Amino acid sequence: MFVGHYGPALAGPRFAPVPLWALFVAVQFLDYLWGAFIALGIEHVRVEPGFTAMSPFDLYHMPWSHSLVMALVWSAVLGLVWAGIAKRSKLAGGLVIAAAVFSHWLADLLVHVPDLPLWPGGPSVGFGLWNSVPVTLILEFGVLAAGWLVYMSATRARGTFGRIGPVILFALLVVTYWISHASTPPTNPAVAGPYVIGVYTLLAFLAWLLCDRVREAR
Ligand SMILES: [Zn+2]
Fold this sequence. Notes:
Layout: H1 6-11, H2 20-27, H3 29-40, E1 44-47, E2 57-61, H4 63-66, H5 68-85, H6 90-111, E3 116-117, E4 124-125, H7 133-154, E5 155-157, H8 160-182, H9 189-212, E6 215-217
Antiparallel strand pairs: 1-2, 3-4, 5-6
Helix pairs in contact: 2-6, 2-9, 3-9, 5-6, 8-9
The chain binds zinc ion.
């Protein structure tokens, strides 16, 4: 899943005062690790055009970033880090960040073919919805839109830009999704890793620019 991951991120501010940029990083944290690990040769991927209807990547080896056990570990680590550095709502904020990190694994479970190990070296799971283009699109944009509506009801604009900022962010997510499918992704893992990390970081920056700066909790 790609933009669907941002649905849970957008719902986060409803439950604790955590900035959207941090939630955007949290929901993609497992993919940040994946990008770093495949670039470093710790995890492995091969490109097979048509591997699923939605993705050419055969993600046959990602025990440290995408196993269930490690997803729980990373969720706890990031939740604790946030609780440590947050100035207020440490417990609620830490829990929301941890839930955001773990939401990535649950969303991946729906769309991935069975390539998500339960633990490093353990059996792999995945419901394979990436094999259907319409189901994937409904899921990606349904979850994204639901999260966006929760965000809009949980926060309010400070000035005019605060009203259009989230609309622009939503549009940019749609455009980014379209570009990522219309273009050929980098196939060299040494490039694909940093590329993924760069795109996610840009989206987190846009969340700060278009939402955090110009909106506040209701
Ligand atoms: Zn992932």
